[in-house]
UniProtKB/TrEMBL annotation:
<keyword id="KW-0732">Signal</keyword>
<dbReference type="InterPro" id="IPR008983">
    <property type="entry name" value="Tumour_necrosis_fac-like_dom"/>
</dbReference>
<protein>
    <recommendedName>
        <fullName>C1q domain-containing protein</fullName>
    </recommendedName>
</protein>
<dbReference type="InterPro" id="IPR001073">
    <property type="entry name" value="C1q_dom"/>
</dbReference>
<dbReference type="GO" id="GO:0005576">
    <property type="term" value="C:extracellular region"/>
</dbReference>
<feature type="domain" description="C1q">
    <location>
        <begin position="30"/>
        <end position="162"/>
    </location>
</feature>
<feature type="signal peptide">
    <location>
        <begin position="1"/>
        <end position="18"/>
    </location>
</feature>
<dbReference type="Pfam" id="PF00386">
    <property type="entry name" value="C1q"/>
</dbReference>
<keyword id="KW-0964">Secreted</keyword>
<dbReference type="InterPro" id="IPR050822">
    <property type="entry name" value="Cerebellin_Synaptic_Org"/>
</dbReference>
Length: 162
């Protein structure tokens, strides 16, 4: 019996199989971190000189796993898994804020906040992603778009499951 228990403990500490039963803490070690990020748009109003510009959410609140890059606005997936991605876009008076959510070159979703001041739109995706996939919001083809910064528009995502 003792031998069985010892074997079980060795297996648990080396393979994480029994982590949920005896909590050996293997989720917090090595590459088993659970990536999560949240960032807010600061520049306001957020105007565009490029019709296909990637939106940057400059103020980073959370960046577990260091996947989000505030200099480019891109979340580079640190680890394979199921992820919940969220974005909220706000408009300013008289202009649309229109941007799509992308994974690499594939569109995941459309975001659009209308022309009245402080309209907002939430975009979400629950998707299986691969390490190094690039998740970002891209302005939808016009330099006349304008978004509401000043902590209104935001971008977040988190690892849900392997
Ligand atoms: C996305 O691009 C990266 C390289 O930039 C690549 O490693 C990854 O496999 C691509 N993902 C998909 C789903 O094509």
């Amino acid at each position: 019996m003792l031998k069985v228990i010892l074997t079980y403990l060795i297996l648990a500490t080396t393979s994480c199989i029994a982590d949920q039963i005896i909590n050996v803490g293997c989720e917090s070690t090595g590459n088993k971190i659970r990536p999560a990020f949240h960032a807010s748009m600061i520049r306001h109003p957020y105007t565009f000189s490029d019709p296909n510009e990637i939106l940057r959410f400059e103020r980073v609140w959370t960046n577990i796993g260091e996947g989000y890059h505030s200099d480019t606005g891109v979340f580079v997936v640190p680890r394979d898994g199921l992820y919940q991605i969220m974005g909220t876009l706000w408009s300013t008076g008289g202009k649309n804020c229109a941007a799509s959510l992308f994974n690499n070159d594939s569109r995941l979703n459309y975001g659009h906040a209308g022309t009245e001041n402080a309209q907002s739109n939430t975009v979400h995706a629950l998707v299986i992603l691969k390490k190094n996939d690039r998740i970002y919001f891209k302005n939808r083809g016009s330099t006349s778009h304008q978004c509401h910064g000043n902590y209104h528009s935001e971008f977040s995502g988190w690892f849900v499951h392997e």
